[in-house]
Amino acid sequence: MSGAALGLEIVFVFFLALFLLHRYGDFKKQHRLVIIATLLAWYLCFLIVFILPLDVSTTIYNRCKLAVNSSPAESNGSYVTLAPSKQKCFKPWSYIPDGIMPIFWRVVYWTSQFLTWILLPFMQSYARSGGFSITGKIKTALIENAIYYGTYLLIFGAFLIYVAVNPNFNLQWNQLQTIGIAAANTWGLFLLVLLLGYGLVEIPRSHWNGAKRGYLLMKTYFKAAKLMTEKADAEENLEDIMEEVRKVSESIKYNHPLRKCVDTILKKCPTEYQERMGRNMDDYEDFDERQNSYPSEKSLAKLHKQVIYSVQRHRRTQVQWQILLEQAFYLEDVAKNESSATRQFVHTFHSQEPENKIIQYFYTPTVEWYWECLLRPWFYRVLAVVLATFSVIVVWSECTFFSTNPVLSLFAVFIQLAEKTYNYIYIEMACFLTIFFLSICVYSTVFRIRVFNYYYLASHHQTDAYSLLFSGMLFCRLTPPLCLNFLGLTHMDATISHKNTQPTAYTSIMGSMRVLSFVADGFYIYYPMLVVILCIATYFSLGTRCLNLLGFQQFMGDSEMTSDLIDEGKELIRREKRKRQRQEEGENRRREWKERYGNRDDSTRSRAVHTDQKESSFSETNANRPLSKYTRSNGRTERDRIELLQDAEPLDFNADSVNDDPLESDSGR
């Protein structure tokens, strides 16, 4: 049973990381190495979060055994009994044998550091490269990362020279390793506090606002207006890039040495553009190097990079627009059904995806109405209050965890109370909830932030390779300082508690931070207090107001620009709603027409075939009669009339397709 808990969590975390990566990435279109590297980075970071509570419970048990072994004791089965006080050290159900956790943490930590500082930055440049060969992409990636790697090597080399020259320093390899770990954790802690201060306020507030239907609908209208602008810009950018591709494709003929590069670019273009360019290309015309100036391979690589980016952006905006439309239609249905007397949820449009029969059986329109119109708002309010309580506890503990006598950190108080009774299940649950909430606050901010179009995690398989790799880098850099901060909040870190007790296996691989006393006693303790200022700034939306002043439209209720964008988005949603209603009405009329006249058309078609056979036989037997031509002309007229009846379809009125010239309209013809 001791290794079963570790094995189950390893398997569970793997499928959790795989599920999230499938939601944001695209397994079919993206490179396998990008998927594997991102999956490994996410998996290792999530694994640290889930395994650390087991390390805490095992450490508490080992401390108890050390206390028992230092005094007269007697062993009894699965626990040790202290002779004087009859104290019992029960072995936790998730106990991990000695020697496993240090090796496990060492492998996980150094693998994640190798990913975040060496492999993932290189793969980012490789993924964005427009090269046409593996060698070309590797060369481009090395050139782009030369400054990145050279800066770190220069700093590390200067530090080694300083240590070697200064006689006061006598550092060994373990101490140098600890200094490197401290530098990486310091950088991660700096970013961690920024993201944590935002998430501690924004997550409870977003759930509280989720209970306000009017607020969500207005924000959806606002998003629709902004997304339509981005969608139009992406379409225009794609048209410009495709025009450049067309010119290059027409200038470089089939027997040109760079034609293979052009064919590679054409394969990345949308299908309709490929067909259009294929029709206009003359493959039988040879190229003349003396008469025309042809683009170089470097310019084609740049064009290839632009094509990949523009196609990805265009596809992402199209998918996000459809998702936003469904969300807006659903919120409008909720607002409409709140005053329903039948208490049954009625959808304006039927779902385009087939629903699960089991869900459809239990989640009836009545159940949906009670959940969406009555229970869901209250559920979100209660959840927001619980999350806000956790946020207050985290802020208080971040400001007071350095105090060991008395113990002011609430998380440390909870763990010490459970440690006295050796309630390992309570210890593991308290540790898991604490670090899970901290992780949600930090990781959700990573998923929410957007740096223009440079970094953006979009769901429904619309995230590009560069953003996936960048998120893996952030996770690997944020998780180690997050875990150290958690151990400090619970006073499981000897550097914080100032107790000569056995450290956790995770802390042991980090080394003693006493090598850098100003980091251990200064930065690690007092810098997390900055989270209070960041929470206040987030509560009053200072960052949102600054972005709004700089020209980046943000959703603010008291802004005139926000009101204009809401009105614009409402009109866009109304227009799309009328368009979809006309489409559904047309499909319903065609379906009714087929159901009503389908059998009649079949019988008419059979009678037409029978009439043709009779006419053909009659015309063959009376070929020499003078009236045969009239018989044939009458039969042709009859067949034309029957074909017209068979091809008749109900008219679907579309205001956008009305033409003033009746000769050019379908009905006129």
Give your account of this protein's structure:
By secondary structure, the chain is an all-alpha fold. The chain has a domain at 1-68 and 89-214 and 358-561. The chain contains 22 helices and five strands. It has helices at residues 2-24, 32-69, 100-128, 134-144, 146-165, 173-210, 213-251, 259-268, 271-279, 297-337, 357-362, 365-400, 410-421, 424-448, 465-489, 494-497, 505-510, 517-526, 531-539, 542-549, 560-621, 628-647; strands spanning 73-76, 79-82, 88-90, 450-451, 455-456. The longest helix is centred in the C-terminal third of the chain and has 62 residues, at 560-621. Residues 73-86, 618-636 and 640-669 have low confidence and may be disordered.
Share of residues in strands: under 5%
Unreliable residue stretches:
73-86, 618-636, 640-669
What characterizes the major β-sheet?
3 strands, antiparallel
Percent helix among the residues?
over 70%
Mean pLDDT: 81
Total number of beta strands: 5
Could you state the order of secondary-structure elements as H and E? HHEEEHHHHHHHHHHHHEEHHHHHHHH
Structural class: mainly alpha
Our Rg estimate from Cα atoms comes to: 35 Å
Q: What strand order characterises the main sheet?
A: 1-2-3
Compute the number of helices: 22
Question: For the terminal residues, how far apart are their CA atoms?
Answer: 80 Å
Oligomerization status of the protein chains: single chain
Shape: globular
